[in-house]
Amino acid sequence: MPDLAATGSDIRLVRWLARPGEEVKRGQPLLEVETDKAVSTVESSIAGMLTEISISPGALVSAGQVIALFEVAAAMPAPSLELGQPNAPSPLPSAGALQDVALSAAVPAPPAPILDRSFLLSLFEHMVLIRQFEERVKFLFLEGVMPGTIHQCQGQEATAVGVCAALQEGDWITSTFRGHGHALAKGLTPQELLDELFGARTGCCRGKGGSMHVGNPDKGMLPAIAIVAGGIPLAAGMALAFRMQKTSQVVACFFGDGAVAEGAFHEGINLAALWKLPAIFVCENNLYGASTHISKVMRNTRIADRAASYGFRGETVDGNDVLAVYDAARRAAADGRAGRGPVLLELLTYRRTGHSRRDPCHYQPKEERETWLSRDPIQRFAARLQERGDVSAADLEAVNTRVQARIEEAVAKARLAPQPALSDLETDVLA
To answer: What gap in Å lies between CA 144 and CA 3, rounded to an integer?
Structure first.
């Protein structure tokens, strides 16, 4: 039983969704449980035949307890992405739904520069790397071997990759508790991230940050800040330092739509606007602050409009189109380097998972979810690449295979990575 109770409280088994003797796929819904949060579905971390159920419905179980036995005939295959032609995106819900308003108001981007095949495949590989990394971490968590909690970004790969691809060496980013994708897009390796998630001293933050605080200053990523909107004033301060040092650096600050309601958002962007600082404020608008829909917390749901009230440029972009994100971020970075001040980019996207792994995500309406899943950023970009004529389905599958092997190798090493010793307690700690 994975650790699904946010406060260490009891977990009640509600019902089994499979029976002994059935073949179960990895990731298939296996049982329903009730925690202090809600009733949620637990996916199987194992592929094989369910041979025995050890716990009956209604019983209380604890994290780590054996609840079922499986017969596994072979090693579990790594998860695979469907890279073929996606279905045509379904129309956005009407009747005043947020997506209809926000996407119709999006600012049309000028034609993107001509990009070569190797750069485009690099974008694709980074997106696949983020998706496969997050999926592998999800199953490590379900297996009960991953400590702590996780906040994942499946579905938001294009925002991280598009923005970071537009940055130059020496540019920085700040991140949030949902930072795995930002880290991978900024150049951190799966190995240093997985070591960190396992709490190893070889992790990117020496095992002291965990999932919510990943980063590596040597690669231009400040360790992520879990306080909502906490990175915004820090990014403004970093941008001020760049200006005072007369460098051409910019900082990209990632945050979610929930951060817009925090005072730190207004204070940070006002300071950046006042002094025309080289900052890109990147709002990953996935429609939900935790479980609360954006329409319930703000009248004007187009977040990019906030920029005008502070005297600088804002732009709403399709955050599931990696090239649109790249082009908008490229122009925003150019503004910062030229002394024209900050830009607020609102990237419309959608997370395929709950707020955290303990969140059953029941608040996402079925129609809304299906609409956004039809706009999957990886499948859309895969289809676009294959329209070029010099990229085949085999090329994309080779990327998928290479990424899988890289992640599995990193997982095997991370499981054996050295844990911190007592003597490490006061190392790398600054006051």
So the answer is: 7
**Positions of CATH 3.40.50.970 in the chain:** 98-415
Phi, psi of 347 (to 5 degrees): -105, 110
Phi, psi of 231 (to 5 degrees): -80, -15
How confident is the model over 358-380, as pLDDT tens digits?
787 889 999 999 999 999 999 99
85 neighbors 59 (Cβ within 8 angstroms): no
What is the residue whose two structure tokens read 């088994």?
13
Every domain of the chain with CATH number 2.40.50.100 lies at 11-71
Rounded CA gap, 188 and 320, in Å? 22
Q: What is the per-residue pLDDT across 55-69, written as a single tens digit (0 to 9) for each?
A: 999 999 988 889 999
Helix axes 190-197, 117-142, angle to 10 degrees: 20
pTM of the model: 0.87
Burial code (b: 16+ CB inside 10 Å, e: under 16) for 246-269 equals eeebbbbbbbbbbbbebebbbebb
Degrees (nearest 5) of the Cα angle 225, 124, 183? 15
CATH fold, domain 98-415, is: Rossmann fold (3.40.50)
Alpha helices in 275-388 (DSSP H): 306-310, 322-337, 366-373, 377-386
Q: What is the DSSP letter of 221?
A: B
Look at the block and give the residue holding tokens 């609409």: 371
What CA–CA distance (Å, rounded) separates 56 from 15? 8
Which architecture does CATH list for 11-71?
Beta Barrel (2.40)
Which of the residue ranges 107-121, 138-152, 283-297, 402-416 would you say has the lowest mean pLDDT?
A: 107-121
Strands 172-174, 251-256: pairing is parallel
